[in-house]
Every structure is written in C-alpha cells, then in structure tokens.
Amino acid sequence: MESQLHEYLAVLILFLVAAGFAGGSLILSVVIGKRGRITLVKDSAYECGMLPVGEGSSRLSVKFYLVAMLFILFDIEVVFLYPWAVVYKGMLAENASLIFGAMISFLGILFVGYIYAVKKKAFDWKG
Q1: pLDDT for position 98
Q2: What pLDDT does 23 receive?
Q3: Fewer beta carbons within 10 angstroms: which end of the chain, N or C?
Q4: Where are the domains of the chain?
Q5: Residue 56, pLDDT score
C-alpha cells in the first residue's frame, strides 16, 4: 500500500507546482496591474488604427452555425477514412468483405445524413 502511494508522489508534487504557478501568476498580475494607470484610451478597443464604431460583435444567422456544424461533421468523416485507407490493403487478404462492408455501411449512414440535410435545405444560404 505504501509503495503505491509512493508512486503518486511525483504526480502530487506536479499538481502542487502547477497550482502554485497558476495562483502565483494570478496574484502577481493583480499586484503589478494595480500600479498601471487606467485611462479611457487604454480601455478602448484597438482596431488597426481606426476608431471603433458600432457594436463589437454582430449576431450571425443560425444558418451559419448549421453549415459550420455540417462542415465539421463531413470533415471528421474524412478523418475516419484515413485509417481505413491505411489498413485496407493489409486487411484485404484476411477479411476483404468485413472491411469493405464496414466502410460501405459507414458511408451509407453518412449519405443518408447528407440527403436529410439536402432535403431540409440546410445548405441553402438564402432560406
């Protein structure tokens, strides 16, 4: 039991050092930050030399986020295709139908999702 606790001593020390560094950085920033003067010019936003006009952030359409999430979905699908393509030739000798069937089912489910998104007009910007 004591030897197992001894194994985690390094982890505990690392945790204490990390917590000390985080806390020390926060305390040091507050102490040093109080010395600086806060002025209206320092608090204003810097926009490449231009005076800031209007709101800082504008609202985006929900359609933008929907298209972004669909892009992430199909982008991750390509990431899943890479390992399959790497092991395909090696596994072709052993389980040709298994590896091909798994990818066809994966692409089939993905294609059904794509058709659903097209039917719901998720890719139309003006809708």
Answers
A1: 84
A2: 97
A3: N
A4: 2-43, 62-119
A5: 64
Q: Which residues contact 119 (CB under 8 A, 6 or more apart)?
A: none
Looking at residue 24, its pLDDT comes to 96
3-state per-residue secondary structure call for the chain? CHHHHHHCHHHHHHHHHHHHHHHHHHHHHHHHHCCCCCCHHHHCCCECCECCCCCCCCCCCHHHHHHHHHHHHHHHHHHHHHHHHHHHHHHHCCCHHHHHHHHHHHHHHHHHHHHHHHHCCCCCCCC
How far apart are alpha carbons 70 and 77 in whole angstroms? 11
Question: Whole-angstrom Cα distance, residue 63 to residue 124?
Answer: 8
CA distance 46 to 120: 42
Residues of the chain scoring pLDDT < 50: none
Query: Which value, in Å, is the radius of gyration of the alpha carbons in the chain?
Result: 27
Q: In residues, how long is the chain? A: 127
For residue 87, give every residue at least 6 positions away whose Cβ sits within 8 Å of its Cβ, in sequence order, or none: 99
41-54: burial string, b at 16+ Cβ within 10 Å, e else = eeeeeeeeeeeeee
